[in-house]
Amino acid sequence: MKNDSLKGQHRINEQIRAKEVRIVGDDVESAVYPIAQALRMAEENDADLVEISPNAVPPVCRIIEYSKFLYQLKKRQKEQKAKQVKVDVKEIRFGPQTDDHDYNFKLKHAIGFLQDGDKVKAYVFFKGRSILFKEQGEVLLLRFANDLEEYGKVDQMPLLEGKRMTIFISPKKGVGTKKAENKPAKEKKAVEQPE
To answer: N or C, where is the chain less crowded by C-beta within 10 Å?
Structure first.
């Protein structure tokens, strides 16, 4: 079970070895009690004495049913995981002598990626003797970053690593709208058009 990973992390009742503990919680006034009195209070409430902060002096405990405590921990972890934002990195590849049409096509895609909240990794790949055109590749990437200035900010200036010159651009706050928010609007337009 998933709770098994949480079970061994906290000491309960007689496992607590401190002489005094600070008890916090909704039903109990926050104060320091001797361990015997704290255990008695937990027993009177038909609950467990759970050590939630063992490194504090004195250790902090809560009077709560241990299974309920584990459930609350698991629920809190799940909420935190749901709030985390996953950022995708989209790659765009150029050649050192990319023409304007290809450049504009890739620029349009990069704008879309940044508006979706994704990072963009643009790179110029030097094949064979084209490594002689390093300056052209750098100029191309700087132009690309300049054209995307209103949608994103440059995290890393052009950097040559082997046969690749790379630049990273992340979306500006307030510009990016996540993909999930865009989908319902697109679906509405598709439904409205047949009328």
So the answer is: C
Q: Residues 171, 101: one domain?
A: yes
16: containing domain:
3-75
Entry pTM? 0.49
What tens digit of pLDDT does each residue of 80-138 get?
888 777 778 889 998 888 888 999 999 999 999 988 888 999 999 888 887 777 888 88
162 is a domain residue? yes
DSSP, collapsed to helix, strand or coil, labels residue 165 as strand
Give CA–CA dist 85/83, Å, rounded: 6
Residue type, 194: P
Q: DSSP of 15-69, one letter per residue?
A: G---SEEEEESSSS--EEEEHHHHHHHHHHTT-EEEEEETTSSSPEEEEE-HHHH
Q: How many domains does the chain have?
A: 2
